[in-house]
Amino acid sequence: QVQLVESGGGLVQPGGSLRLSCAASGRSFSTYIMGWYRQAPGKERERVASIDWTKRDIVYADSVKGRFTISRDSAQNMLSLQMNTLKPEDTAIYYCNKVPARSEYWGQGTQVTVSS
Question: How far is CA 51 from CA 16, 84, 92, in A?
């Protein structure tokens, strides 16, 4: 059974940093394009970053460009998201999934709250 488990969220002040992790199990995701998504209250889920298996094709949403860094360790089946200079509008539940996302792969996500 494929499982994606996100961790690393929390409460942080504006301007702070967090590092999210996604552990995959059940199959190898090494050849997939993987992404980080987020869903804020009352809004649709959006993709904020993606990375291909070569780690050369990396795409960021305009809203996080220059602040977030996506990375992957295919040998460990892990995906990470370094988030710096966090803003209140980054508050959301963050998820990892392949690109395009598969509904059966959505995990519980990890809550990120940016507030003073």
Answer: 24, 18, 21
Residue 13: CA atoms inside 13 Å, Cβ hemisphere, count?
1
- The residue type found at 63 is S
Phi, psi of 104 (to 5 degrees): -75, -5
State whether residue 112 is helix, strand or coil: strand
For 112, the token pair is: 């990120």
Q: Are 97 and 105 in contact (CB under 8 A)?
A: yes
Cβ pair 79, 10 in contact under 8 A: no
What is the Cα–Cα distance from 8 to 4, expressed in whole angstroms? Answer: 14
Block means of pLDDT (10 residues each) for the chain, length 116 residues? Answer: 94 98 91 96 97 94 98 93 98 97 96 97
The tokens of 7 are what? 């961790």
